[in-house]
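tool=predict chain=A
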Amino acid sequence: MDKTSKIFEGSALVGSGSCLPTQSLTNEQISHRVETSDSWIKSRTGIGTRRVVGENESLTTLSSNAAKAAIEMAGWSPKTIDLIVLATSTPDDLFGSAPQVQAQIGSKNAVAFDLTAACSGFLFALITAAQFLRNGTMKRAVVIGADQLSSWVDWDDRRTCVLFGDGAGAIALEATEHEKNGILGFELKSDGSRGECLRLSKTKNHLTLVDGSTYQKGEFQPIAMNGQEVYKFAVREVPAILQKLLDKENTSPADLDWLLLHQANQRILDSVAERFSIPHSKVLSNLKNYGNTSAATIPVMLDEAIRDSRIKPGNLIATSGFGAGLSWGAALIKWQGPT
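tool=predict ok
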C-alpha cells in the first residue's frame, strides 16, 4: 500500500435530502370515505395528515429528488458517487428502481440496487452501504429510503388506511478516517416466524396455462396488519435492541442528543422514550404531518431536523427501525455535515 494512501475505517454522514408528494390527505378527508374521525385517528396514532403520490409523481422521481438534495448538500458531483442503495418495498419496477434513480441523477459511475426490509429498510441499507465504504472498495454512497404504500393500502379498511403515507429521504455517506466515523455501532434482527403480523402478500391466483398446466398471476393483496401484535412487538423489541446497542457502545441515554425512531405510532415513540427517561424535547417526530412512510420515515425526519438546525454537526443520535418481516434494528450515529 502507498504510504500516502488514507485508510478509511469509517463512514461520515455528510448530506441529507427528502422529497414528499405534493398531494396531502387529511384525517377529515379520509372520514368522507370510511367511518372514522380526526380525533379518533390522532388519539390512537398521532397522525394528522399524510402525503399521497399523485398523477405526475412516482416512487422513482421522489427518490431521485431526495438523492439530488443530499448530493447538493454534500457538495458532490453525481459522477463521483460509487454506490446507490434504494431501500423500498414498493418499487416502480419489480426488477428494481435504483438503476432508474442512478440514471435520473446522473451518477453514471455508480452501481445501484434495491434493498427490501420494509420499515427497517433504510437502517438496513445504511449499514449495508457503510460496509462497502469501510472495506475500501467504494468511497461515496447515497442511501435512499422511499415507499409508496398508498398503492397497496385497502382504502376501505379503516384499520390500516389511516396509517400510511408516501415519501422519500436520502443520506450522502462518505468513507472517512476512524476519528470522523458517523456510524458508531449497530444491531440488526429478523424473525420470520412472526411475519404474518404485517404483510403485503402475493395473491394466490392460479390460472390455466395449457394442457392442464397452471401459472400464478402476478398480483398482490392489500397491506394486512395485526395492529395489536405489531404494537406489542415494537414496545418490547425496540427498547431491548436499543439497550443492547447502548451497552455495547458504553453509551448512556443521557449522552444522546436525539432519539429518532421509525415514525409508526406516536404512542410507540412516547413509550420507548419513557423507558429510557429521554425527555420529549429530545425525541424527533414528524408523524403528525406524514404518517408512516415505511423506509422513508427515518431519513425524512433526519433531513427535516438537519435543515432546520435542530441536528447539528457532532450530535449523537440513537435510531431504530422496525416493522414487517418482522425485522428491526438500531444504530448509533453521529451527524458530520458537509466537509
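The chain is about 30% helix and 25% strand. The domain at 10-180 is CATH 3.40.47.10 (Peroxisomal Thiolase; Chain A, domain 1).
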